[in-house]
Every structure is written in C-alpha cells, then in structure tokens.
Amino acid sequence: MEEQFQKEGLVKESSEFEKEIELVRSIIKTREELKRNSKNFEFAEFDLVDYYIYQIKANQAKLNYLLKLAKASGITIDSINQIKYENYDEEIG
Fold first, then answer.
1. For residues 64 and 68, what is the distance between their CA atoms, to the nearest angstrom?
2. Closest CA to 56 of 86, 85, 35, 84
3. In terms of residue numbers, what domain contains 38?
4. pTM for the predicted model, two decimal places
5. For residue 60, is it left (φ>0), alpha (ψ between -120 and 50) or beta?
6. pLDDT at 26
7. Angle at 41 between CA 39 and CA 47, to 5 degrees
C-alpha cells in the first residue's frame, strides 16, 4: 500500500512586524474564546460543565503564554487594542 502525501507550499518568511501582528491576533482570538466559554459555562448542564471548565483552563493557559510572549516582544495592551479596532474596521468596511 503506497502512502500519498500532500505537497506543502512554500512558507513565506514573515517580517518581525507581521509576527507581532499575528501574535496580537492570537491574543484577541484567545481572549474572545475565553469570554465565549465562560458565558457558555454559565448555562452548561451535566457533562458540559466539565467540558467548559477544561476549555476555560486551556484558554487561560494559552492567553497567559501569549501575553508573556507579547511582553517579551515589547507589545503593550494599547497596541493590542489598536489592532483589534483596526481589524474591526476592516471587517465592517
């Protein structure tokens, strides 16, 4: 039996600025997922309570890690909020 592999395209090297933008986007996305899971936890029943507890803990750990990376890169909360608002404007326009 012959295995088939999908050929991957070339990975474009990102500039430092692009890496920072992606980090900020990841922080915003994780923060939104954490909010959504916390809200869903409020209404969860039975086994879903355990599921949302796991999701909340996982997202908190991920967010803490991403924030440490941002701090090490010199990214501030103000720049995170600025990018969030710029993305919001792009989605509307």
1. 6
2. 35
3. 16-92
4. 0.69
5. alpha
6. 93
7. 155
Q: Establish if 6 belongs to a structural domain.
A: no
What whole-number distance in Å separates Cα of residue 30 and Cα of residue 37? 10
The answer to whether position 85 is within a domain reads yes
Instruction: Kindly report, residue by residue over 1-32, the tens digit of the pLDDT.
Output: 556 656 555 556 678 888 888 998 999 999 99
**For the segment 71-82, what is each residue's pLDDT rounded down to a tens digit?**
998 887 776 666
Q: How far apart, in whole angstroms, are the C-alpha atoms of residue 78 and residue 35? A: 20
Number of domains in the chain: 1
How many other C-beta atoms lie within 10 A of the C-beta of residue 34?
Answer: 18
Query: Residue 64: what residue type?
Result: N
Q: How far is CA 86 from CA 30, 34, 58, 67, in A?
A: 17, 21, 27, 20
